[in-house]
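The records we work with from here on pair a chain with its fold. Each token is a code from a learned vocabulary of local backbone shapes. A record is reproduced here so that you can trace the correspondence yourselves:

_____
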Amino acid sequence: MASPAMAEAYKCRQPDGRMVISAEPCADGSKEVKVVPGDPVPDEVRERAEREAERMREQAEKNLNTRREIEKQEQQARERAEMQQPPPQPAVEPVFVPVPYYVGPGQIRPPRPRPPPPTPGKPGKPDKPTAPKQPIGSRGR
């Protein structure tokens, strides 16, 4: 335990104009400005202050632990909420589906889409050989 402080404090003005506060009387060449007598603190008051300081330290530690526990619970709640969310769906692209339409008594279908061009490196369908055309009117003469 610390004993109560009973020292006096001296406030001195140095020859160069600086102010110095010390527990010893002013040195030669300096002027004493103020002497503050030591104020002894009774043991009862000191012990009460120490108990109050200890109580405040315990309360601060308790508050810190409570705050950490709350933050931990909030983090767990965020993690649970993330786990319960459905996975993101892939982007959906629109697809054109031709729908037949009717005009009058007959059904008219939309034109068929063109096939994609052949990709390089893949053999396409071979063309059928065609017979040479003969002019009309000339049959095997």
User: Anything to note?
Assistant: The first helix runs from residue 43 to 84. The CA atoms of residues 115 and 124 lie 12 Å apart. The mean pLDDT is 76. The beta strands are 9-13, 19-22, 31-36, 101-103, 106-108.
